[in-house]
Every structure is written in C-alpha cells, then in structure tokens.
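[job 4471] stage=fold_predict status=RUNNING
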Amino acid sequence: MSEEIEETEIEETPATPESDVAPTEAGAPADEPAAQAASGAAVEEPAAPAAPEPKKKRKRLPRAERSQKTRPKRPASTERKPTARLPKPEHERGRSQERRGVVVSSAMDKTIVVKVAVIKSHPRYKKVVRRSVKFHAHDEQNAANVGDVVRIVETRPLSATKRWRLAEIVEAAK
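[job 4471] inference complete, writing structure tokens
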C-alpha cells in the first residue's frame, strides 16, 4: 500500500526543467512552456484569494490633496517690450445719439425736461404708432424755456436721471 501512495505522488509532481520530455496522461511528450505555465499558475493560485481592501471614498478633499492641473510654464523673457502709446482718436468713443424734442418743463435749476415724439410703423400691422419719451437734459445757462424746440445729445451720467445735455435751441417758443 505504501508503494502505491509513493507512485501516485511521483506522477502528480510537475516535470523539472532538467528533463526534456514530461509524461502526460496519453503518454505523448508535452511542451516545456505549457508545463511551466501550468506550474506557475498552480503556485500563484494560493496568493490570489486575498481580497483587496475597498478604496476609501472621500466626498470632499482639502485643497492641498486635490489633483492639480499643471499648466506648461512659459520661458521668462529676457527683455521687456516698450509700451506702445497710440494717439488719442479725435472722435469720442462710439457715436453719441442726438434727439429733437419740445421742452415741457424748465422749473429745475440747470435741468430741462424734453419730450421727444417717436413715430413708428408697427412691424406686423403696419399702423403708424406715436410714442413719446421724456428726457432730463442738462442746461448750463438755463437758456431754454417751455415750448422751445431743442436738440439734445447723449452724454455721461450727470445725475441719477440726467444722461442728456442741451446742444442747441432750434426754435424758440412764440
């Protein structure tokens, strides 16, 4: 009985690299790499069942631990470029609007209220629609009176409501 146990143990052991041909069940020779791969797989299997630890989830990371996006650094220039000064344009920025209207109030000091009538055609129905808008305008000399037809131009904000200034009195009131 002891002889049979020893024989079975010898048959189960894999072939060593010293022997050229390893016996198989059918008795045919087997390739060395296949035999080595089989023996390597048998060696690695006992180590594989160890379960890896789950990765710890962190909802919020401190700024120092966050992944940083690195930007390529530009090489520092050795010489400085001179600042180019362009000549100031003759005209002001943009085009200031001009409107014509009738003075409806000049009771305030250096301020007039000008009513500008706008006549537009309705985009869909083509009916002529009359609208009017009141603007507060700056009148430095208090020259305009109620009923005058004046030309006002857009300017920087002069007060909470004044964004226009008196350019000229086109027609004085009768």
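[job 4471] summary: The mean pLDDT is 77.
[job 4471] exit 0
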